[in-house]
Design a protein that fits this description.
- The protein is mainly alpha-helical.
- The protein has 2 domains: about 30 residues; about 120 residues, 2-Layer Sandwich (Protein Binding, DinI Protein, Chain A), CATH 3.30.910.
- The chain is built from 5 helices and 3 strands; from the N terminus they run αβαααββα.
Length: about 150
């Protein structure tokens, strides 16, 4: 009798404990506060990206001049073998120049990306948002915080 009473008390206690924990878990649900940002607008506002674009265009114009000079030099060669050899040399140099230009540009893009992530995160946390999405992935709802982040973009 004592064993069955003890078992009943323990089962009742376990049931009550489980029910109480479940109630606490269900009642502590936080409703997410959702915002979105227009990343394209933020990138367009970045002075670093504008400067990187201008630098890249200037370097590409210089590369076109270099290419034209290299092409003229190739045409001056007396034999086809000499032309091919020089063309191969210039092609290697051209590929190295392209890679250097693209690597420098991507470095700037990555810097801006990290800066945008930091600015978006800081502003969203400051405003109490728990979720921030890209504008192009939002169909309905949320708050646009792009204009509040633009002043933070360098």
């Amino acid at each position: 009798m004592k064993k069955s009473l003890l078992t009943l008390v323990l089962c009742s206690f376990a049931f009550g404990l489980g029910f109480g924990v479940n109630n606490i878990a269900v009642s502590n649900n936080v409703v997410p506060k959702i915002a979105y940002v227009n990343v394209s607008k933020l990138v367009a506002a970045s002075k670093t990206i504008k400067a990187a674009d201008a630098t890249k265009q200037k370097q590409e114009q210089e590369m076109i001049k270099w290419f034209n000079n290299a092409n003229a030099e190739i045409q001056k060669q007396p034999t086809q073998a000499a032309k091919n050899s020089l063309a191969q040399k210039y092609e290697t140099q051209l590929n190295a120049k392209k890679k250097a230009i693209n690597d420098a540009y991507m470095k700037k893009v990555n810097e801006v990306d990290a800066q945008l992530d930091s600015a978006i995160s800081a502003k969203a946390k400051g405003l109490g948002y728990t979720i921030v999405l890209r504008k192009d992935s939002v169909l309905f709802g949320g708050v646009d915080i792009t204009s509040q982040i633009i002043p933070m973009v360098k």
